[in-house]
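A sample copied in:

***
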Amino acid sequence: MIKVRKPGLATSVQDLGREGYYHLGIPPSGALDQYALSAANHLVGNPSGAAGLECTLIGPELEFRQDALVALSGALMSPRLDGEVVHQDTAFQVRAGQVLRFEFPKAGARTYLAVAGGIEVPLVLGSRSTYTLGALGGFQGRRLQEGDELPIGEPSGEGRAGNSLPMALRRSVGGDVTLRVVPGLYYERLTDAAKSSFFAEPWTVGSEADRIGYRFKGGSALSFQPREQPFGAGSDPSNIVDSCYPIGSIQVPAGLEPIVLHRDAVSGGGYAMIGTVISADLDLIGQMQPNQRAGFVAVTLEEALEARRVYKNA
């Protein structure tokens, strides 16, 4: 059992998500940095999709009520166990009664905590991930709160303290980020000048950046080709007749600031999608802090599929 002494800013139980329900309006949820959660699980002997904790910007304070094997991966939050530094990407033993604390991340936005046996909350539609807007999954369908007690599953016995992720497999966080984009169905609605500026100019993450989506600021406003709005669409040039939204799709309401939808996003609506950030780069967004710089670069569908293959085989 793990007792939550302080919940942090937005700590939740996540696994790799619940696929197959987006057409019903239920997003996949799951870790925003899937690689980091999978890496932490690997170090403690769990399946890659075991449920762990996603700790965002301000980490929790956790008291372990039983011995446990733990690993952390993702943002650099300077974790300390009873005041002693513990290292990222290396499994370590925790004894009953010890307390794990975090500081504000030096780089990155989300640290993932895996414990041997996983966080044993009930499965909901095949996943333990938390979807807070729908009060679905995770621990009582919400972020963690002070006093919560999280059950731990039965360890596989395959993890060992000291297991460490090879340096070649560790991913750095922080710094400027380049996000690869496949231009979408409505990309041709942009003017030539807007197409050029979107990919040429630098952007920064706005304060509105969460599991639903990331807003980017700082670039030029994007203009749309003039047209008579079709029946059923809103009056804004960026409006369309309602359509489905893929995870990673980029909206630009009123042409002002791009919003990249992430794993808790709604499944459809009435804004044009000018492109989609490729699946292999979604983890990068999950580790971005407000005011961090980013740029977008266009890629083909074939290049996106190859990037996904490389990501899956990492």
